[in-house]
Fold this sequence. Notes:
Layout: H1 2-30, E1 43-49, E2 59-65, H2 73-82, H3 86-97, H4 101-116, H5 120-133, H6 138-150, H7 154-166, H8 171-194, H9 198-211, H10 216-228, H11 232-241, H12 249-259, E3 275-277, E4 279-281, E5 284-290, E6 296-301, E7 309-310, H13 312-320, E8 324-334, E9 337-351, E10 354-363, E11 373-375, H14 377-380, E12 383-388, E13 393-398
Parallel strand pairs: 6-11, 7-10
Antiparallel strand pairs: 1-2, 3-13, 4-5, 5-6, 8-9, 9-10, 12-13
Amino acid sequence: MKRLIIIHSLVLSILMLTTGMIAGWWLHAGLDGTGRANSDNHSFQIIQWDSDPLNTTPYQTFNQPYNDHSIDEHSLFLQALDEYRIDDALVIFQQYERKGASALHPFRKALEDWLNHQDSDLSINVLERFTQHYYQDESLLTRLANHYEQQDRLDSAIITLLELKSFTDSKEERSALNERIHTLSRAVYSQQMKLDQLETLLGLFQQLSSREVDYGFYRFALSQIYLATGDNNSAIRELQVLQTHSEFGRQAAQLLAALTPPPPMDEPEELPGNTIPLAARSGHFFVDVSAGNKETVKLLIDTGASLTTLPSDLLQRLRRKKLAARVGHTQLKTAGGYQFAPIYQLKELHIGGFIVRDLQVAELDLHELGSEGLLGMDVLGQFRFHLDQDRNTLTLYPR
Length: 399
């Protein structure tokens, strides 16, 4: 029995030794002298997922010899750009972006150097694809806008600069971008009005005026585009706001006079009190109004103001006489920044021969140019109005 156990142990030891020798030989055959896998006959694949959902091919593969010492992603990146495989270059760029700024830096520099040696058409195609993903990248957006401008695609340059401005925090950079957009907008307006490209112009200037409501040229351009398309009502709306503008006020008033002639003489109910004399000073116009009492206040006509404002002492007197009640508050944008302002509801505001009832006004002590307050579009917008800068009159027609 003891002999049988010894024989069994000897056989088991031989089997284990044999297995170890086979495994060692196999490992040696599959590894080189440094312990790395021998891969002379192996390859690796770079898999590019196509981000276009309409592409029926879900991915593309590019086989390269696998050798740790010869893989050069930098060269692959440039090769993809040279072969116009923009998506492949973008994938490599994104892979190194995830590794951090230091890893991405050589690829960004390679992209910039490559773009410097390409024509505008190819550069635009590459930049358009990259900025779809890097839509806040100021460097790429600036390059794209420059190429658009070189190709005289001014509307595209403006849209790109608007995107760039929306991601810029620096006040100086925003000011410089505004100046460039203003210059390009005037150029594209002159260019495309001659070519009768009204639809493109309309969409562009609607966007521009919504982004920068204080820039008068955008409103004036919009009024001309509306007139060219036969939309006189929209043109009148823009021109009314421009009547006090330093550059376009006189043109706006002349156009409004032609577009909104006075009512015929056989309608006397609209004539009494509809023309109001104004005081003029330094290109600004002032009108006298009263708020239900006998005293009048001189208000600066401001078509850029949404709310009419009155001085605090007048509102307190009206409040004591129950001619006004405080109903809330708001913030007003003034020359010194945003300012808290109480809101009052007036029983009535008298302007010329008209009465505006239940008007909400803001309390604001204004001492600019000798004015006691502002007459805003909350009052003027209730009328068709014409500001005659030659005769210094304001004519109101009920809507």
